[in-house]
Known about the structure:
The structure holds two protein chains of two kinds. By secondary structure, chain A is mainly alpha-helical. Chain A has 14 helices and two strands; from the N terminus they run αααααβααααβααααα. Chain A has a two-stranded antiparallel ribbon with strand order 1-2. The interface of A and B includes residues 184, 188, 196, 200 and 203 of A.
Amino acid sequence: MKARQNISGSRKILSALGEVVLAVLTLLPLGNLSPNTIRLLFVTLVWVTVSVAWNLVGGFGGQISFGFAVFYGLGAYTAALAINGGINPVLSFVLAALVAMVASLLVGLPTFRLRGPYFAIATIGVSEAVRVLMTNFSLTGGASGYRIMEKGVFRQLDHYYAALILALLAVTVSIYIRRSGFGLALVAIREDEDAASDLGVNPFRAKLLAHAIAAALTGTAGGVYARYAAFIHPQGVFAFNIGVAILLMPIIGGVGTIWGPVIGAVVYGFVNEELVASFPQLHLLLYGTLLVLIVLFEPEGVVGLFRKGYPLLARIRRAHAVHS
Amino acid sequence: MPSILKVDCVTKNFAGLAALRQVTFDIEEGRVCGLIGPNGAGKTTLLSIIAGSVLPSSGSVIFRGKRIESGKSYQAVRAGIVRTHQIPRPFRSLSVLANVELGIHFGRSSNRDDSSNEAMEILEWVGIAHLAPAAASTLSVGNLKRMELARALATKPSLLLCDEVCSGLTESETASVLGLLRGIQKTGTTILYVEHNLKAIMSLCNPVVVMNHGQKLVEGSPEEVQSHPLVIEAYIGKKAA
């Protein structure tokens, strides 16, 4: 019972923190921030979206996919083609979501018949196949990449708010799903797929649906990023590194939780930036070491640390109250 | 009473091993049918086939006049057949209440909105309402068995398949679970009850089907079955010549 109170106490603190962060994020760019800081915040918000999206499938549903770069890349290219074709950016993002969603069904229909490591390996195969395909696809410039030429003046804040709205949408979807019967079904599938089926859950359909929603969010994030970057190439948006990064963010923050993937993405966004800037040759090694340490000592990620730390804080507060 | 379930010449081979051979029997609606047999007799395999999670190699399972075997147990659940597991399989990170709510959300043909109230009523009925907010991982074996039963009942089954629901329980826990099964029968639910505990089977079931080496040995009332020479031989062995 005490543990439950602690969890609900830490949950309240996290959601209050969430509200504060949201207010700050909305108002922040109105201050005198440098374009580079806004860029960092923009990229971090894009990461938040894909991290939260992956968590729907990998965290709630327990289906570890290395293939989310496929949706990110397809979303990026779809939006790029649409914007160059004169379509309004918002509509381009919707198209990006739709294409990623269709791709998620094509990937999911065969791969969700596999379980555990076999599913994970299959997603690596799909991801690499799509990357090679796009590298040789002449319509989008192949390995040379594709440039987006949007008419009008470049306004960094437009991009920033697009990323903020998308990240908010992703978190809202995640909260809604986790609290719904569908969310219960996903967790049940993660814990024991056969037992879930024995209670009437259609695991294949639930996994496909979660995958489609996650792909739509990831594809849109790819589109938002592509519009900002104005230049994309397969080694960038379809890279295996991207697929791994998308998976690692929720693991850093706390896989299967609502706020863990958000925290993981923020940590990744900032730490990755610092590491790349400070140790261009060593950043992957340092990042890998950080991950190994997290997985070894706190598999529940930052949220797990917070949950463990909250009772300690409560005890200290009580001790203070007694003394005063 | 009409039969709710017809098991017709069901055979199941796992590679070279015949787990079930030409098993045939019917269950009348509203009855509690016992299924007993020594270890390895094929009881759980048969239960899995009826529950829709395993396909038979040949033969058919007909529930309310329709063949149900598809290898997909969620379809059988929505048709009205649900099972409990010999070793409870809770969703450990979910609360006891959420475990039961899942059955309400997904196990019925139509969805219910007030799932949490109804789940609480079911938990009250099986006697673990006070544990509703607790994580399923914290439950004792006895309470896990009750939760399995509650989860199954949440799907509003017409046919409940109970796989050794009393194994690992103390005598008083067994008596209380048997009381629950009697209560379930009174609501008109048909039960197929696999059990090693003969006392439990004999006090609750009629008819009783006895299996051995994947075949049906005998079927009859508890008294007939108990004194049947083939059953005695299967459990105790032949008299030395």
